[in-house]
Design brief:
Elements: E1 2-3, E2 9-10, H1 14-30, H2 36-42, H3 49-61, E3 65-66, E4 75-76, H4 78-88, H5 96-107, H6 115-130, E5 133-139, E6 145-154, E7 157-164, E8 169-175, H7 182-196, H8 201-211, H9 221-235, E9 242-247, H10 259-273, H11 275-283, E10 292-295, E11 307-315, E12 321-330, H12 335-352
Antiparallel strand pairs: 1-2, 3-4, 5-9, 5-12, 6-7, 7-8, 10-11, 11-12
Length: 354
């Protein structure tokens, strides 16, 4: 007896488990359905093609496999893949050469680099080893404000331009009272530049919250409303506070054989561009003790592209999560190799940065 991803027991005897395992492993290797005749030759037990077809029918009734078209062989469903990963997958270990290569790459000059730089290098490396796209999620560094500018776009809307001392520029849209004169936006910009320059975003937010109640004499009511609107845009959500770095997009194109594969990869690229949703999804790995796996439509973000995500938190010696590291690729990635690779690399990065 094994358990499904919803923890309901499935009665699979040894023969069914063996057939199911070979169907999934063939799919992970080739991406193609496997037929009963070919499968009967590969099994470690003697089963006729007719007997294999009967087992396949039972597995299909359980929702673990399906036929992509009439008279085709069988492929695992998403539920079947989850069952395989959770209950039947034999996770291997990295070879000594792979461990040494990861250690050399990550440890090289780590002391002189920022956490983000070390994580980015790890994302590059893990992308190359896994032949998937590497993903890195980090907290934004405490960049200090160099310049702030309000620009009126249309009645009720203003563009807030935030320039950091590292040269990065963030543009955000703020809702403001309608029909404000241009002079009000200039006055608000001048006030903020005079009082907030050199502070981090968090320091600026805290200062404004404390000081706006004490500036009645300095600011007119309209200018205060503009500043308060700008303050609201700086509060942001999880996606505004974190950086998502994607490395190795080209690896996702290396195994595209048919038009449907290309269309799937194009949808995945679109998913990767939707960084806000992806940041929220990867950020959930912050709560995981180890590797976390998302398969296909288990995440609404990948419901069309049929992709899998394998991620792990990076924890320093103070037990603080400083980032998330992982890979994304098609659902038929080599889970047995990639899971230990992500796990080992995330743990090694956590050691190196501290």
């Amino acid at each position: 007896m094994i358990k499904s991803s919803v923890n309901q027991p499935l009665q699979l005897d040894k023969r069914s488990q063996t057939v199911f395992r070979h169907i999934v492993e063939a799919y992970l290797e080739t991406g193609q359905p496997v037929g009963s005749r070919n499968l009967s030759r590969q099994l470690p037990m003697t089963l006729s093609p007719a007997s294999v077809r009967n087992v396949m029918s039972d597995l299909e009734a359980l929702g673990l496999v399906y036929a992509p078209h009439t008279s085709a062989g069988r492929m695992p469903t998403q539920s079947g893949l989850r069952l395989f990963v959770d209950g039947l997958l034999e996770v291997g270990d990295l070879t000594g050469d792979e461990r040494s290569a990861i250690e050399r790459q990550i440890a090289n000059d780590a002391a002189s680099r920022s956490v983000e730089d070390v994580l980015t290098e790890a994302g590059d490396m893990i992308s190359g080893l896994s032949l998937c796209a590497g993903l890195v999620l980090t907290d934004k560094q405490d960049v200090r404000l160099k310049h702030i500018q309000f620009v009126r776009l249309e009645p009720g809307k203003a563009l807030v331009v935030l320039v950091g001392d590292d040269g990065n520029v963030e543009n955000r849209i703020a809702d403001v009272p309608s029909d404000l004169p241009a002079a009000v936006f200039e006055e608000a910009s001048n006030y903020l530049n005079a009082n907030l320059k050199g502070l981090t975003f968090d320091q600026a937010r805290q200062r404004l919250k404390g000081e706006l109640t004490q500036t009645e004499a300095e600011l007119n009511a309209l200018c205060r409303k503009v500043i308060e609107a700008g303050l609201g845009t700086w509060s942001g959500d999880e996606a505004d506070k974190r950086n998502l770095i994607v490395r190795g997009h080209s690896h996702l194109l290396s195994d595209v054989s048919v038009q449907t594969d290309l269309e799937r990869i194009q949808r995945l690229f679109s998913d990767l561009e939707a960084k806000r949703d992806l940041i929220q999804l990867i950020g959930s790995a912050d709560q995981a003790d180890g590797v976390k796996i998302f398969i296909g439509a288990e995440s609404q973000l990948f419901s069309l592209s049929g992709s899998s995500l394998v991620v792990a938190p990076v924890v320093d010696n103070k037990k603080t999560i400083v980032g998330v590291l992982g890979v994304i690729g098609p659902t038929r990635i080599n889970y047995g190799r990639i899971i230990p690779m992500v796990d080992y690399t995330a743990k090694l990065v956590g050691q190196v940065i501290t």
